[in-house]
Amino acid sequence: MLTIGDVFSVVAFLFGMAFSAWALLIGSAMIFSQKARISESLLRRAPGRSFILGLFALLLVGFVSIVFLSVPLPAAKVLGYSGILIALSLATIGGGGLVLFVADRLRGYDAKLRPFAALTRGALYIVMAGLVPLLGLFVVFPAVLAMGMGTGIQALFMRDTAASEAGEYSM
Prior knowledge:
Helix 1 (about 5-30) packs across helix 5 and helix 2 (about 35-45) packs across helix 4 (about 75-110). The protein is mainly alpha-helical. The protein has helices at about 5-30, 35-45, 45-70, 75-110, 115-130, 135-155. It contains 6 helices and no strands. The chain is globular.
């Protein structure tokens, strides 16, 4: 039997995770601005390649991490959690590029929109799309994670020449 406290706990958890994801995407786009610009450039030029690479890497790292987490040894659990954290950090770096991409599209619709406002709205739209009950959780969220991881991996090993246009989001 569910009580009102259980429902409030779940809603508060979802709100906290959404707010944290929103702040993490904005922070990633601003702190790792060079890599985020490279990720944005990759999303513009080769979104399919980024998605396939990210999906493959996410499945590989996720499978290996789950296998390590199922082993009862503490060292294996540390390796499993490390794999998950590496995957999420790569997805966060690539997610910063996705936020810049959405923010640029928003600025195309409204020229009076300031760059930081477009950045925060872009991150908000990505997070809110992931909160849609079934479609967001099982389609949008994994797709954003895969695209972010794919562009994050590519951006980590690329030079700055891929993102020749600095744009208005340079810090």
